[in-house]
UniProtKB/TrEMBL annotation:
Organism: Theobroma cacao (Cacao)
Annotated EC: 4.1.1.37
Lineage: Eukaryota, Viridiplantae, Streptophyta, Embryophyta, Tracheophyta
Family annotation (NCBIfam families): hemE
Protein name (database record): uroporphyrinogen decarboxylase
A GO cellular component entry from the record: chloroplast
Protein's GO biological process: chlorophyll biosynthetic process; protoporphyrinogen IX biosynthetic process
Family per similarity comment: Belongs to the uroporphyrinogen decarboxylase family.
Task performed by this protein: Catalyzes the decarboxylation of four acetate groups of uroporphyrinogen-III to yield coproporphyrinogen-III.
Pfam families named in the record: URO-D
Reactions that this protein is recorded to catalyse: uroporphyrinogen III + 4 H(+) = coproporphyrinogen III + 4 CO2
Domain annotation Uroporphyrinogen decarboxylase (URO-D): ranges: 117-133
Gene Ontology terms, MF aspect: uroporphyrinogen decarboxylase activity
Subcellular location field: Plastid, Chloroplast
Length: 322
């Protein structure tokens, strides 16, 4: 659950001590500490690397920062073929050695009591950030590029696809046992445009990783994915993560039983009573059916969520028996 809010209070203290995103993300000891905090407290089945999907950008010659209260800011947004030509393919060993170090330590610390998860951003989502200059509400810049200069966007997407495949392989080689791909903004595309600007590159990543790491489970998440579920399954990933806007039973039916599902309790449920939380968890599990289901929230945990309710979520989940 995005590290259970990255264990809310202590993470806030750490951010105050290390206000720079780079200070936090490149400090191996700090990365390990933050990654382990929710596991030490709640003992979930997974430990998620503390990082960000935009971490590779600096190594691709795309300077950025994450600004408090504003989010990611790309200093020089891309908008032309000349801009894309300056983008380098990502070399994780060279650019983010601290990620590999942190994963190796996490595997040793967890000692197979939980799975260590890495993650990457999907090509279209990363492209959206670097073209828009950060977060966006209407995605006009990336769509203008897609529909007026598609070759330029395809060139950028190809660089991200190759780079993210390399990054997944690097994470796996250094300790990640599962990797989740976040295509958060893919659902801003119509189905026909998803098939052109996202699906081929996701498939390329999956195919490339499966050639070198055939047993590495890959998870795909896209916010608001109800209109694209069947297409998400075409990527070849092992697990599709559903957000709470999709009924779990309907999602399972549409995806088929050959693919696993993850999710999809509404994070807002954790503001409810413990009885309400219990009922929603049981409803989700019942609708998912037996097997091939990773119980989770349908998105990251919300700021201000009562910690005792987070603990209750895990207690109920661990007690479920089929």
């Amino acid at each position: 659950m995005r590290q259970a809010g990255r264990y809310m209070k202590s993470y806030q203290i750490i951010c105050e001590k290390y206000p720079s995103f780079r200070e936090r993300s490149e400090n191996v000891d700090l990365v390990v500490e933050i990654s382990l905090q929710p596991w030490n407290v709640f003992k979930p089945d997974g430990v998620i690397l503390f990082s960000d999907i935009l971490t590779p950008l600096s190594g691709m010659n795309i300077p950025f920062n994450i600004v408090k209260g504003k989010g990611p800011v790309i200093f020089d947004p891309l908008g032309s073929a000349a801009d894309v030509d300056k983008v380098r393919e990502f070399n994780p060993e060279e650019s983010v050695p601290y990620v590999g170090e942190a994963l190796t330590i996490l595997r040793r610390e967890v000692d197979n009591e939980a799975a260590v998860l890495g993650f990457v951003g999907a090509p279209f989502t990363l492209a959206s950030y670097v073209v828009e200059g950060g977060s966006s509400k209407n995605f006009t810049k990336i769509k203008r590029l897609a529909f007026s200069q598609p070759k330029v966007l395809h060139s950028l997407l190809q660089k991200f696809a190759t780079s993210m495949a390399n990054y997944i392989q690097y994470q796996a080689d250094n300790g990640a046992q599962v990797v989740q791909i976040f295509d958060s903004w893919a659902t801003e595309l119509s189905p026909v445009d998803f098939e052109e600007f996202s699906l081929p590159y996701l498939k390329q990543i999956v195919d490339s990783v499966k050639q070198t790491h055939p047993d590495l489970p890959l998870i795909l998440y896209a916010s608001g994915s109800g209109g694209l579920l069947e297409r998400l399954a075409l990527t070849g990933v092992d697990v599709v993560s559903l957000d709470w806007t999709v009924d779990m039973a309907e999602g399972r039916k549409r995806l088929g039983h050959d693919i696993a599902v993850q999710g999809n309790v509404d994070p807002g449920v954790l503001f409810g009573s413990k009885e309400f939380i219990t009922n929603r968890i049981n409803d989700t599990v019942r609708k998912a059916g037996k097997g091939k289901h990773v119980l989770n929230l349908g998105h990251g945990i919300k700021v201000g969520t009562p910690e005792e309710n987070v603990a209750h979520f895990f207690e109920v989940a661990k007690a479920i028996r089929y």
